[in-house]
Structures are given as C-alpha cells and as structure tokens.
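Service request form, structural biology core

Requester: graduate student, group of Dr. S.
Request type: structure prediction, single chain
Budget code: on file
Notes: please return the result as structure tokens.

Sequence provided:
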Amino acid sequence: MGWKGPDPYAGQQPEATLGKTTWRRLCVWIGTGFGIGLVAPCAPGTFGSLPGVALAVAFAAWLPCWWAQALLCLALTLLAVPICTVAEACLKKKDDGRISADEWLLYPIATIGLPLMEAPWLIVLSFVVIRVLDVIKLPPARQLQYLPQGWGIVADDFVSQLYALAANWALFLWLFR
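Core staff response, request fulfilled:
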C-alpha cells in the first residue's frame, strides 16, 4: 500500500511546528483529519475518515439534490490536493499514512444521493464499504497513487470512492427495493 518508490523525504525530520506558517500548520491540521492522523494509535486512515462521516450526513441533511452533493464533492476533491501536498511536505514523508484529508474530504462521494437520513444503517454500511475499497485499491486506484504530491494522495481515493458509491447504491437497491 502507498508509495513504493524511493522516499524523496528520506532522512529528513518533520518540521518542529509541522509547518512554519499559519497556512502550513492549517494544512497539516486539516490534512491529518484535525490532528486525528497524528494521534491515532493505529489505522490513521480509518480514524481520519470519521470527520467524513459527519460531512456525508450533513450533505444528506442539507443538500437533498444529488447533483448539488456531487458538485460540492468535486470542489472538496480539488481542495484536498493542495492540502495534501502541503501536509506531505511538512511531514516530510511521501504519501504519509497520517494524512487523511483524502479520506475525509472525499468520503461524501461514496454516499451521493443515498438516503442517509431515512436509513441511518446506511451510514455504517457505507463506512465499511468505503474503508474496504480504500484498502484493497482496485485498478486504476493503486496505479494513481504514483502521481506526484497531493495528486497521488487524492486520485487513488477519488477512484476508490467512486467504486464505493456504486457498491453502496447496489447494496441499497438490493436490500430495499
């Protein structure tokens, strides 16, 4: 999983403040899921996904139109790229597992249009589906990890979230239609 090439940050230590400017510190804070990725005892991507659950529920509650959810998801995906790029540079480790902005900012993609408010069990089901598909990284997700900087961090999760969206809808329709 993750970056397989030589680490361009090998031998370097993270900055003592995890960023010398307010912008860089903010990117590390957001990039690590509000610091969850820095303190998670294990599976920082899974723990770091938790803010995404709240985000997906908020989308379902306040944005009833699937296309509005999709547009906001696209905007969050594009926002995740520079955040992950800066966080990676501050943590000085290629595709650092503590960076979870790719998980939590893209999480709502996998729930676009699903009736989370009417069927709260979908929240748990979608979390499991999302995490499984993020871990196994079906093609071309695994290959996209090798894109540079934040693009590689985000692109594989974007594809995994699209797979999860299809799987979540298939499960919902199979179980309740």
